[in-house]
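User: Here's a protein and a ligand (TXE). What would the complex look like?
Assistant: Let me lay out the input and then the predicted complex.
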Amino acid sequence: MLTIKNYINGALVEPISKKYIDNYNPSTGKVFSLCPDSDEQDVEMAYQAANAAFEQWSNTSAEKRSKIMLRISSLIEKNIEKFAEAETMDQGKPLWLSRNGEIPRAVSNIHFFGTAIEHFASEAHPMGNHAVNYTLRTPIGVVGCISPWNLPLYLFTWKIAPAIASGNCVVAKPSEITPYTAYLLSEICIEAGLPAGVLNIVHGLGAKVGSAITSHVGIKAISFTGGTKTGAEIARVAAPMFKKLSLELGGKNPNIIFADCDFEKMLTETLRSSFLNQGEICLCGSRIFIERPIYEKFKKAFVEKVKVELVVGNPMQADTKVGSIVSKMHFEKILSYIELAKQEGGSVLCGGNAVKLQGEFAEGWYIAPTVIEGLQYNCRTNQEEIFGPVVTITPFDTEEEVLHMANSTEYGLACTIWTENLTRAHRMSFAIRAGIVWINCWLLRDLRTPFGGVKNSGVGREGGWEALRFFTEPKNVCIKI
Ligand code: TXE
């Protein structure tokens, strides 16, 4: 049985309590590893290591920090198969997605910030010829990074990379449901020669380890990705301590399809934006709005494509398009929302059920990709985040009507718009309340761009200079000439 360890002060160590949590392989429903059940003592040990390492790491040149980060990035790349298999075993996503999406993006995250830090600069403000201001950007100190289970290494590195690149030391906690690839990353950090204490990974439960990080007086900033409810809890604890907060939370994203769209391109991309990673991406377009003239054509073509192309199966198999749901609890949550949709008057056009595989996968957690129509835009199914392979389809007649429906939820993370009318694309992008708008594409990502949402989808932005600014403090110095 694989026993995962914490990574503290440059070493792989057991939790002080010696207690462990069962970690499941969702494709079989069986325990395959043990995750440390750490507590505040382990967080304190990690904090002390980070604090001790900060002086040296923050004074290490950006060039040297960059070199070590690029070594970590290339070592992950060299071990991509091992990381991909681990990610799939832990999260349930298809192996091809781990190999071609998840792990390469983690490699890019570390490479991107490992190079960005060499170009990160700040500004000066001359006051005529009698004074000059310059802005110093210095690292914060010890920061906390807490990440979710849907894109485990991808979102974990998306936080720790800018944090360490900008000279901070980190106490990090991946989700207790998907700890495996963060553990493999620890081994790579040791091999790459990352100085002890720069990155510390404490595995365990959110309510124990996560909250110990959030409430630790020495940890001055928290970068969190996860559910909106948890984000609110973190803010409740951290705000009175005046910590910097970056909160990337839930989404209930509209996918707006106009009759003048490029139908075939839209259809192919909408299959992805609806069900990639079993729909367990907060950027997925779970509410599909179709302009009435093509509603029936879309419904027929989309349902057909879902039934024919989206094979549900063992995620290690090459032809699997929809893998297993990450946990029994989440599996049951998604099925309960499908029941709710029926109670709210929805008609299930395809899917709507758990899928029972054979043999060693019989106990795994699988749900058929589900398309539901006939619901009110403001019913619970269309307002609450399901975070699974479930989408609703709704016709609309005017831009005003679809904007009202699209903007009606408490979330505002992302939106996809399909139209060949350029003026309309800009008009809609201005009117949509979201942090990210994709036009005639989905999940096309440039790491330099600001990433995040509005309303209950979060606070602050990640990505590019936004991330490096979050993890540094600006100081203005004004000199009289
Ligand atoms: O979140 P949870 P989940 C959202 C996505 C979905 C959720 C899925 O929309 O709603 O995240 O992740 C730790 N104090 N996004 O269910 O439970 C917990 O252990 C401190 C949005 O895992 O919030 C885990 O490590 N930490 C995002 C992490 O928080 C606590 C992209 C997340 O767990 C804690 C991905 C506490 N009290 C998912 N309780 C985006 N917008 O980019 C739990 N945790």
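Summary: The chain has two domains: 2-249+458-480, 254-454.
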